[in-house]
Amino acid sequence: MSLFGKLRGEFIDIIEWLDPSNDTLAYRFERFQNEIKNGAKLTVRPGQTAVFVNEGQIADVFGPGMYSLTTQNLPILSTLQGWPYGFNSPFKAEVYFFNTKQFTNLKWGTSNPIMLRDADFGVVRVRAYGNYSIRIVDPAALLQELVSTDGLFQVDRVQDHLRNLIVTAFASWLGRSQIPIIDLAAHYRELGEQVRSGIQAEIQNLGIELSGLLIENVSVPETVEQALDKRASMGVLGNMQQYAQYQAANAVEQSAQNPGGGNSALDFGVGMAMGQQLANSFGQQTPHTPQTPPPPPTAQWYMAKNNQQLGPFDLNQLSQQGLTADTLVWRAGLAEWQPAVQVAELASILPPPVAPPIPQPQVARGEWYIFRNGESLGPFNINQLPEQGLSSRTNVRREGETEWVRARDVAELAPLLATLGE
Questions:
Q1: Structural domains present in the chain
Q2: Which of 114, 122, 266, 361 places its Cα 20 to 30 Å from the Cα of 368?
Q3: What is the pLDDT of residues 293-312, one digit of tens each?
């Protein structure tokens, strides 16, 4: 190797990263025992961020663009290296590239069934699965919390942790919602957004944002599916007596087409018809006995809780659902949703009103701050300001404001300054 080639190999003059994997969150730029020369070119492509680390401290952060690395655009690194007058020699620093694009179609699902109490089927077990999307919003936090000195940090390193957070939040929200299983499909989008927002703060502490969460399916055991199918079949059949008559008519027609042969359908139809006639005959011979009329139907109530419609409930169940005077309720016959306190029928089950706290006298608070000897003092009321050495040149600000102004520029302080001879 020539002397020129050897020298060229010792210094890095182009820093860039092309991600061939499509699932890498962070990558440490390879520079084995090499130094970055003054004026080297840094290329950060769209969807990337570059972070310079010097001796374990995060120095400079670069967004998309092309940069010539000098003291002018490496202010923090220059300070850490002690180059007050610039540098002309190579320098050493670790460079980490972060993918800030969205990573989509990441899968989540329940590894074990979730036990729920359902109004229609009792205690059931459900499974759920879907997908979610993430992206990096704070590369420095991700570097400190997860990446550390890892030279190649990929999505699978955080997937298990994110999946556990999603499943835990999903199970908690589903248990509190009390949505019937047969109505869950109508709430997939709302449920996904509730779960996403519920764990957003915890994930953002890692420098990652959960940009989307979708629920693809919530399934029940096979036995519950069979019960649902049977209920649907009964709904399709409708009137069982008419169905039996229809089956009997089909059996007679099939028998006429096959004289002399056995016909199981005919046997079924004739059996149903004979059973019906026998029941009618017994009904005619049995003297009619007066029956007690059925009790009047119980009013079915609905209530709004956490922006959800819950119900129907009877009066006793409303109390168990945490009914308060301000809870919105509705039943058949009401024109619109009304606070429970305005419905006379609910007066007996509403909790007694709670007396408000005894009002406390308001204590006057200072509302002025002054800036003196390099520090902010206060708050003071306007009469205390002279005691603090107020003059026309004193910097002041009112409580709630952020900018300091000279006292002479505040019209409200003019009478006070006049008494001070300012």
A1: 3-99 (no CATH), 103-223 (3.30.479.30), 301-349 (no CATH), 368-419 (no CATH)
A2: 361
A3: 666 566 688 888 888 888 88
Q: Which amino acid is at 331?
A: R
**β-bridge mates for residue 96, sequence order:** 28, 51
Q: Determine the 3-state secondary structure of 1 from DSSP.
A: coil
3-state secondary structure labels for all residues of 100-135: CCCEEEEEEECCCCEEEEECCCEEEEEEEEEEEEEE
Q: What is the 3-state secondary structure (H, E, C) of 32-89?
A: CCCEEEEEEEEEECCCEEEEEEECCEEEEEECCEEEECCCCCCHHHHHHHCCCCCCCC
Whether residue 75 is preceded by a cis peptide bond, meaning omega within 30 degrees of 0, is: no
Q: Are strands 368-372 and 338-339 parallel, antiparallel or unpaired?
A: unpaired
Model-level pTM greater than 0.70? Answer: no
**What is the arrangement of strands in the sheet containing 395-398, beginning at the earlier edge strand?**
375-380, 368-372, 395-398, 405-406
Reduced to 3 states (helix: H, G, I; strand: E, B; else coil), residue 144 is: helix
